[in-house]
Design a protein that fits this description.
The protein has about 110 residues and is α+β, with helices and mostly antiparallel strands. About 25% of the residues lie in helices and about 25% in strands.
């Protein structure tokens, strides 16, 4: 069975979080507890239940990962994006740097 970690979203701010060996939710995937067998994955999911009941996180699930050079790397693109953060530039999706806004060439109407 491939190695797996448990992930969810924190309800207070929607951030992606990962379950550590101490049953703490952390934003850094590299602090997640890695499970290498079905029993360990099921035990980790069971550890996540109190956080769901207390409305701290929503929908925890297992993610396949590889441990490479001491780093935890999710196997799927979706989970790598969740682990590494947004793929947009700027603080907000609609924000563009001023240089890009000023470089806009607007057509002239004759």
């Amino acid at each position: 069975m491939p190695s797996q970690v448990i992930t969810a979203n924190r309800l207070t701010d929607g951030r992606v979080v990962w379950l550590t060996a101490d049953s703490v939710w952390d934003e850094d995937v590299n602090r997640a507890a890695v499970a290498d067998d079905k029993t360990s994955v099921e035990a980790a999911l069971a550890k996540s239940n109190p956080a769901v009941s207390e409305l701290n996180v929503v929908e925890p699930y297992a993610v396949e990962v590889e441990v490479s050079r001491g780093r935890i790397v999710p196997k799927s693109l979706r989970e790598r994006i969740r682990a590494e953060g947004p793929t947009i530039a700027g603080a907000y999706a609609g924000e563009r740097p001023a240089a890009a806004r000023n470089a806009d060439i607007r057509p002239q109407i004759a």
